[in-house]
Write a structure and sequence with these properties.
The structure holds 2 protein chains of 2 kinds. Chain A is an alpha+beta fold. Chain A folds into 3 domains: about 140 residues, Gyrase A, domain 2, CATH 3.30.1360.120; about 90 residues, Alpha-Beta Plaits (2-Layer Sandwich); about 80 residues, Elongation Factor Tu (Ef-tu), domain 3. In chain A, the strands form 4 sheets. In chain A, strands 11-12-13-10-4-14 form a 6-stranded mixed β-sheet. A 6-stranded antiparallel beta barrel of chain A has the order 15-18-17-16-19-20. A 5-stranded antiparallel β-sheet of chain A has the order 6-7-8-5-9, with helices on one face. By secondary structure, chain B is an alpha+beta fold. Chain B has a single domain, classed as OB fold (Dihydrolipoamide Acetyltransferase, E2P). Helix content of chain B is about 20%, strand content about 35%. In chain B, strand 2 and strand 3 form a beta hairpin. The chains are: A alpha+beta, B alpha+beta. The interface between A and B is medium-sized, with 20 and 13 residues.
């Protein structure tokens, strides 16, 4: 592609991607598969119909340990960490003193005995250096961050993911969505997270680098599983209404503007105590000037990121932050920010695509229903 | 999907092909271009009567991943856009040099064709890109 590829890092699964004919691209400093010979469209649909395997080893994994690790972590995120039960995962954001978002991340409390003072973190690839430096510096003296650069991360997503993984790790079947456990997969020690970035049921599997290719091959040899690249990962998460850091959220967007108020518990709303709490809690009480919404272009033309959004009078009211074609929706889908007065579902919008006005409307997210797994409890 | 007509095509460095048929010419994107784009999900073709300049934006093709412009290989006036393409954009992938044509053009300066690549030159150009 270009010379910059020479400087890219590779994940432990690089040889597997090449052997399977992946087209590799640079992403967040890594050489990553954007698609395999199946192609983005079929990879997307296969994940929604069966199971897809994604290499997400570029993401940042770490463990935070401290006597008062929950309280320490809560000084950096608005999420409720103290309330996390052993084995539970929470989605939250690192915030700036101005209420912007440094990154979104998953924080888990390990269930294993002896790890009561630990939190397991998974952050975005492009943000991991900054995140880990920030957490280490801010919590110095209270908690110690250890990077898990020795572990790969493999996502297995789709309605057949549980059947596939339970064949190899029986206990995987009964895990609730947003829980984690350690186990053994084909003699490799693994941490399983029942979570993902597709809107489907599935897992993210942390595995030692040295075992990553072997474990990925075992999973790919299951008849339901196909390897899936970053192209389909993006269209899947967009249909699922999930934010891409750097596009839909960044240091200029608050969690309230980003429609992530649901990540802030009642206790944290009352107590505050996280960076930017002043602005964020003020927006919670009084409303934010703009909101992230789902946007459905009414024609066929996809509206990509940075497309201008206007009201019916030609006044600029916002911008698309993620947009493209939704293979499961079979049409264009997008997300973006609009002035709050235009954020109600059904509100007509005008998108300026290649200089031409295109009709669109605010639509509820997700575009495709989430299929997360919960054990029935009555 | 190479077809036997490929030898008559002329090519641009932007991966359009053009096939002259009398005073008119048919334009599309090459097999290499469609394979690089991946699954085509949206196509916009120019309306009849539109005047195009060589190298100017003529049509739009979008895959799941990204949007791309299709440029006019030579100058002329659009005679016909492929009306079947917006409803069946996947034709660009399955038959790029046949049913996946984008538009027909009445040439205004046929000598511009001399500046385009023949099949051998285009294949060499693509091989160097992929190297």
């Amino acid at each position: 592609m270009d010379q910059s590829q020479d400087h890219l890092k590779s994940t432990p699964l690089e040889s597997l991607h090449l052997a399977r004919g992946a087209k590799m691209v640079g992403f967040a400093g890594y050489s990553m598969p954007v698609q395999y010979p199946l192609g983005v469209l079929k990879e997307h649909l296969h994940t929604r119909a069966a199971a897809g395997l994604f290499d997400v080893s570029h993401m940042g994994q770490a463990e935070l340990v401290g006597d008062d690790v929950d309280k320490a972590m809560e000084t950096l995120v608005p999420g409720d960490i103290a309330d996390l039960k052993p084995g539970q995962i929470r989605y939250t954001v690192l915030t700036t003193p101005e209420g912007g978002i440094i990154d979104d991340l998953m924080i888990s409390r390990p269930a294993e005995s002896g790890r009561e003072k630990s939190l397991v973190l998974v952050v975005n690839a492009a943000c991991k250096e900054r995140d880990f430096a920030h957490i280490g510096a801010q919590l110095a003296g209270r908690a110690t961050l250890t990077r898990h650069d020795d572990a790969a991360l493999i996502a297995l997503q789709g309605p057949k993911a549980a059947d596939v993984l339970a064949r190899l790790v029986p206990a995987a079947a009964a895990m609730d969505f947003m829980t984690t456990r350690t186990d053994v997969l084909a003699n490799a020690p693994v941490r399983l997270f029942r979570s993902g970035y597709t809107g489907e049921d599935g897992y993210e599997i942390s595995v030692p680098n040295a075992e990553a290719v072997r474990i990925a091959e075992i999973l790919l040899n299951q008849p339901e599983v196909q390897p899936i690249g970053l192209g389909a990962r993006d269209s899947l998460r967009l249909e699922a209404g999930l934010c891409l850091y750097g596009s839909d959220i960044d240091t200029t967007t608050t969690p309230i503007e980003a429609s992530l108020a649901w990540t802030i518990s009642k206790r944290r709303r009352t107590e505050g105590g996280f960076p930017g709490a002043g602005k964020i809690l003020h927006q919670l009480a009084n409303g934010a000037p703009r909101k992230r919404v789902g946007i459905r272009p009414l024609g066929r033309a996809p509206a990509r990121g940075h497309t201008e959004i206007q009201d019916g009078n030609g006044r600029r009211i916002g911008e698309i932050t993620s947009g493209g074609f939704g293979p499961s929706v079979e049409g264009p889908v997008a997300m973006g920010y609009v002035e709050t007065a235009f954020s109600k579902v059904g509100t007509p919008l005008t998108l300026i695509v290649r200089g031409q006005a295109q009709a669109a409307q605010v639509e509820s997210l997700p575009f495709t229903p989430h299929h997360y797994f919960k054990t029935t409890r009555n | 999907m190479a077809n036997s007509n490929d030898a008559k095509l002329r090519y641009t460095k932007d991966h359009e092909w053009i096939r002259v048929e009398g005073a008119d010419a048919v334009v599309g994107i090459t097999d290499f271009a469609q394979s690089q784009l991946g699954d085509v999900v949206f196509v916009e073709v120019p309306a009849a009567g539109k005047a195009l300049k060589a190298g100017g934006e003529a049509a739009v093709v979008e895959s799941v991943k990204a949007a791309s412009e299709v440029y006019a290989p030579v100058s002329g006036t659009v005679v016909e856009g492929n009306a079947a393409l917006p409803d069946h954009p996947e034709t660009v992938n399955s038959d790029p040099t046949g049913a996946g044509w984008f538009f027909k053009l009445r040439l205004s300066n046929p000598s511009e064709l001399d500046g385009l690549m023949d099949k051998a030159a285009y294949e060499k150009f693509v091989a160097e890109l992929s190297a």
